[in-house]
Structures are given as structure tokens and as C-alpha cells.
Amino acid sequence: MSHYDTLGVSNDASPEEIKKAYRKKARQLHPDVNPSEDAAEEFKRVTLAYEVLSDPEKRRNYDTTGDEQGRAGYPGGGGYPGGGFSGFGGFEDLLNMFTGGAAGARGPASRMRQGQDDLITVSISLQDAVFGVEKTIERRSAVTCKSCNGEGTAEGTQPETCTTCSGHGFMQRRVQSILGTVMQQVECPDCHGYGTVIKTPCPECHGQGRVREDVPLTFNVPAGVHDQARIRLRGKGEAGLYGGPNGDLYVDLNVKRDKYFSREGDNLVTTVNIPMVAAALGTTIPLNTFDGDQEVAIPAGTQSGDVITLNGLGATVLGTERRGDLLVRIQVVTPTDMTEEQRELLRQFAALRGESLTEGSQVKHRGGLFSRLKDQFK
């Protein structure tokens, strides 16, 4: 397929028609719009076609020789005319294939470069981590210059063919080696290997094709993420250079501490203070959870450290619709600021139960399984 067919224009298309066709194709195939691998390869072909057909000299060379890079034919068996450059052939040609000479020459480098990946940290609440959330933030990043559409050139201009290397992007020089005189390929010092120079850069981006500015970003945090989780947003990193694809954005999540709840695996944990009498007699208390108010039954005789489980009210299990449990840990509160009347009532209560205020019972340490089995045979 020819470059003209790639852009969908005729062989006699004007520069304006070529540019319009390229922009239309580029929008359709850009990774932000079309993430498929086939689109990425087609995007490269479209960009190469535009680079060649938008440059008058490369276009003439392409029409004449059919070279995909738009390079001119190499006179004198691959040498370049003028300025210390000369033709060469025979055995020296063979050597040049291995030393970077014209016989194995590469074309000029593309200015297109993929944008750099970026990394940011975003804080979310524990509740957002449990249920997931759509976040919208602003961040500073490199974006495509709107003034030149990422081309780096001032309005009405385009990159010009480098006169130093005649658009090849590289030059050759003679060097002496143990094999004799060979030609060494070096990057052109004026165009830096691109084959073109931007003589009139865009005043907004100074020829870079990108500017840095604050840009809004909306993304989804999946339900069930843990603290320090990292999310990858493809194509949301820095804009590529000169029409190249964007890099990726990595988001590190910082889950903030909650006032009432903590997380253990996929379970949520909270602690509830229960008055001594309520713990002894049993009661029902309201509990504010991430799922709204719940009624929690406290059995009679509840002790400090007891755990009441509310099934399915914990954190979402990442990648599923299942949820862990909410563990309610009980802390029985012993009164400390009692009146003498209240103290007397407690003493009477202890007497009714036959309890001595000077006695306690030490809990025997049971040890491990081996120790308990050993005790059975004593």
C-alpha cells in the first residue's frame, strides 16, 4: 500500500489535503480513542506517510524512487557528494554494511516519541476503598500544544529539510582502521538525526509540540482496593512528542484512617463501649455503619473482648461482588465515678450473688496442644 493510499488521498493531493487527511486518521487511531494493537501499528504507518508526503523533497524522492522514507538515491554506489564525501564500491561497500556505511544505512529518525509515564498519589477514604469511587482531580502534566497541534512549528510553516545532511539524518566520514579506510556513519549535528529542522518554532511550545498545564482527570477506583494499591491508567500519562502516543499514568492510593472503622483483610472492625449493666442484662444498640444504621443485639453476660459479627457488612473483595464481615468488638465500661449509694447497691448485689470483694480467680494457662495432651497422662 502506498503512502497516498494509507492517508486516503490521491497522488496529486495538495499539502492542505494531506494534512487534513492525516489529522482525521490520527484522531481515529490515537491510543486514547482506539486502544487496539492494530490501531497502534496503523497509527505508525499513517504518521510515516504524513512525514514523507508533507515534506516536498521527501515527497519528490518517494514519487521518483518509491523509498518509504522519502530518501534520494545514493549516487556513486552509496556515497554522498561534496564536502569530504565520495563514492565507494566493491569490498569497501561490504565493510560499510558492518560499520554503519550507506550500504546498510538507516533513514532519518522520527521525531515522534511516546510520552513519559507519570506517577501521582491520591488519598481516598476507607469508605471509598470499600465501595469504590469515581475521582476527579487536577494534576500538572505535559499536554499536546493546541497552537501547533503537537507539530512544534509556527502556524503556516513546517519542518524544512536539513541542508547539512540533505534530509538523511546522518553523515559519513572517512576513518582509518586496521582494515584500511572505511566510512563511518554519524548523526547529523544540525538536525540530530531527524533529517529536518524546525526553523520557525511555535511560540507557545517553543518547538517542543507540548506544554505543561493543569489538566482535569477522572478515573474509577475499584471497590475493595487496599492501602498503597497502584492503579494503571493507560494513555493518561504525558503527551507524546510530535504526535507520539501518550505514556501511562500510575496512581498510588493512600487510604486515610477512619475515625471509627479499621480494616483487617476483607473485614471491617469497630469497637463499641457498653455500660456494665447493659452488658450484664443484654440490650440492643444502634450502630452507624458504611451501609447505614444497624441494630446490634448485645447478649446478656457479654464480656470485654467479645466479638459480634455482622455478616456481609465488611469490605468488598477486590474483583468480586462478595464482601467480608463487620466485626464489632465489645468493650465493657466499668463505672469509676459512683456515689456512695451506688457503691452500696453494688455491695448488696455482690452479697446476693455470694461474691467476695476480696477474691479473684486466676485463669490457668492452658499451653499448647502438646502440653494439654501431656497433662492427660499425669
Would you kindly provide a written description of the structure presented here, covering whatever features stand out?
With 378 residues, this protein is of the alpha+beta class. Among the domains are: 1-73, DnaJ domain (Helix Hairpins, Orthogonal Bundle); 262-358, Urease metallochaperone UreE, N-terminal domain (HSP40/DNAj peptide-binding domain). The protein has 9 helices and 15 strands. It has helices at residues 3-7, 15-29, 37-53, 56-65, 91-99, 126-131, 276-281, 340-352, 369-376; strands at residues 118-124, 133-144, 160-161, 170-177, 180-187, 196-197, 210-221, 230-233, 249-255, 262-264, 267-275, 283-289, 292-298, 307-310, 326-333. It has a 4-stranded mixed beta sheet. A 3-stranded mixed beta sheet has the order 1-9-8. β10 (262-264) and β11 (267-275) form a beta hairpin. α2 (15-29) runs antiparallel to α3 (37-53). The radius of gyration is 38 Å and the shape is rod-shaped. Residues 73-105 have low confidence and may be disordered. Pfam families: DnaJ, DnaJ_C, DnaJ_CXXCXGXG. Its main location: cytoplasm. Belongs to the DnaJ family.
Shape: rod-shaped
Topology as a string of helices (H) and strands (E): HHHHHEHEEEEEEEEEEHEEEEHH
Order of adjacent strands in the largest pleated sheet? 10-11-15-14
Which residues form runs of ≥5 with pLDDT under 50?
A: 73-105
**What share of the residues does DSSP label as strand, in percent?**
25-35%
Round the Cα radius of gyration to an integer and report it. 38 Å
Q: Decide which structural class fits the backbone.
A: alpha+beta
Q: Write down the CATH class of one domain.
A: Mainly Beta
CATH topology of one domain: HSP40/DNAj peptide-binding domain
Number of helices: 9
Number of strands: 15
Taking the sheet with the most strands, its summary is: 4 strands, mixed
* Level-2 CATH architecture of one domain: Sandwich
Keywords: Chaperone, Cytoplasm, DNA replication, Metal-binding, Repeat, Stress response, Zinc, Zinc-finger
GO cellular component, one term: cytoplasm
Subcellular location: Cytoplasm
GO molecular function: ATP binding; heat shock protein binding; unfolded protein binding; zinc ion binding
